[in-house]
Each structure stands twice: as structure tokens, then as C-alpha cells.
User: Fold these one by one.
Assistant:
Number 1:
Amino acid sequence: MGRRREPRIKDEREELDERVLDIKRVAKVVKGGRRFAFRTVVVVGDNRGRVGVGVGKARAVPDAIRKGSDRARRNMKRVALVGTTIPHPVETKFGGAVVMMRPAAPGTGVIAGGAVRAVVEAAGIRDLLTKSKGSANMLNVARATMDGLLELREIGTVARNRDVDPEAVMPFWMRTKKKRGDEVSDG
């Protein structure tokens, strides 16, 4: 039985997308002077709608990365997706960082930079328009992005709550795509 478990753990680690966003040297002032350590911000995702952000701090960089990765794996959350994009626009703030995300038509790609790109790509989002405003601190931008992704609601859930047809709450490009195929030309 022990042999069966080991390959599963290796497979799980291989399929997760792990990215180190930021490595900073931080100092703690003590009686004898300064004590230096490293703080890392790590994003882990499965590219299928689950993503997590973790922070690790240690005296050595590899230890800090390992701690951040472990925390990110423990904090993985499910994100609502519609195909390769998000179901609706969202704007969130964390600290001084403000992140705005809008759904995009298939084929657009991820229009984002830095921490936002790493988080949404790890979540498996392939088409998205974003803008990061305010603070450029990687940790705050990553957390604002995570908060925004967690605010997203499934189309079916929103439709049930509003007691309307799911097509009424779909993004405009999904509705127009369906209607184009139904159109009959006059010519």
C-alpha cells in the first residue's frame, strides 16, 4: 500500500503550476544589529480552476520558497470560470493595490502583467483583460487578484438567485456568438 501512495504524491506535485513571484530581503533589528531573512511570494495552481498564494520567510532563499509553496498549496481555492475566462467583471482592493479584471473573448489571451498574470495563468484562465492600479507591491497585487477571483460567481448560481434564465446573465460575447449561428441572411 505504501508504494501506491508515493507515485500519486509525485504526480500531484508535477501537475501543479508553481511560480515564485517575488523574493525580498527583509531585516529584523535586534540588540546586536540587524538580522536578515528572505520573504518569498509563491503562486500554486492546477490550471483547472484552483489557485493559491503563499508567503514564506526564512534565513535562506530555498527554505523560504519551500515554506511559501507549502502555504500556497494549503490555501488553494476554487475559482468560477466560464470556458477560458471569468464570468463577469470585478474590481478589488488589497492594501494600496487595486486590480480590475474583465472577461475577454476566446483568443484574446491574458492581458496582464506581473503578479496578476502569474495568479490567473496558474488558475487556468486563458482569456482576460486586467489593469493593476495603485501600489505595485507584488504581494498586495497577488492578494488583490486572489480576492477578485474569489468574488466571482458561477453563471448558474447567479441565475438561480435572480430567478432568471442563465442566458440572461451570460457575458455579451457568449450570447452574440450563439445568435450569429442562428441568423439567416436576406440576400
Number 2:
Amino acid sequence: MKILLVICAIALVVATCCAIGCIALSRRSTDATISPTAKIPGKAAVVYYSQSKVRNTATVAQWIAKHTGATLIELELAEPYPEPYSATLKAVGRDAEAGTLRALKNMPSLDEYDVVFLGSPIWYGTCALPVETFLKNNRLSGKVVAPFCTHGGGGAGRFAADIRQACPDAKVLDALVIRGSNQIERRMGLGVGLRHTEDDVVKWLNRIFNK
């Protein structure tokens, strides 16, 4: 019995230390340490949808805007998905099965923009349904489209291919794929900064616009 109690105590200490270590890591500086050299070909906007409370996709969108001077445009649903995240997934599953795309509260006009950074979390292997709604109403013809996404460990799936298919008359650049936080990490308040910094965005910008 005493041995069991000791083992449990040790396990609790290890788990606590790991949690504290993760939280400390998430608070490290995420500022860029490398210089952006990308030349953005025209006026740019960052259009994105972000669902979770830790704002993984929103954080990446803000990093992109910071290093490009692009206008930030967040897509919002007229009827938001419920919280917590588990409830969101169930609602998204029902919508996807029924082929339902919820209306957006805002449908931005992008006529004045030449470059569109398009961001989304990965839901069921592709972009979030609100981004599908946006793309259904915006073909982005003639524009340069730079997609980016965040995922909780499952990868980007069909994201890049689906964006290209939805924007046949746009120049679609290589996507930025960022590992965000999984459900456990989200409950701890840990976001995309746990694993990434602005350097990842700057490297991507330098690569796709300096080819």
C-alpha cells in the first residue's frame, strides 16, 4: 500500500512539473529573430477564421499582418458554434454531414486587395466550414492567395488541395502549416506559441515571395 502511495505521489509530481514546464514554455518570447525580406506584390489582407479560445489561427494571422502590413479581417459567424471545443466538434460534424454552411456575419469585399492570406483551423482534414462559406462567395480570381492553417496534431490533410480547387483562377502559393494545440493543451490555455514563433511565419513569407 505504501509503495502504491509513493508511486502515485511521484506520478503526481511528474505530471505537475510537466504542466508547469509547458506553461512556462508557452510564455517564452515568440518575437521574430530573423529579418523579413519578402516583397508583397500589392495591397494585402489576412482573412481568417479562428474558433478555439486560445486563438491559434488568430495568433498566426496577427504574426502575418505584423510582418506584411496586411489588413486583418476575421470571419465571424452569424450563429456561432457552441463552446466548449467538444461541443463545437459535434456541431461541426452535424453541419458537415448535412452539408450545412452557416452564414457569416461579415462578408468582406476584397476588390481593393491584390494578395489574400487565407487562414483556417483544420477541421476533419480540411479548412473550417466558415472558410468554405467565404470561398463559396469569393472566388478570389486574379489574386495571389497564400493559405495558412493550424492543426492539433493531425496535419493539414486536404487543406492545400481544397484551397487550390476552390480558387481555380487565383495564383495559390505554398501553404503554411502550423502545429497549434490539442484538446488537453487548449484546456490548459496553451496556444500556438507553445511550439512556434514569428520566425516560422517570416521564413515562410521569405520563401514564397522570393522565388
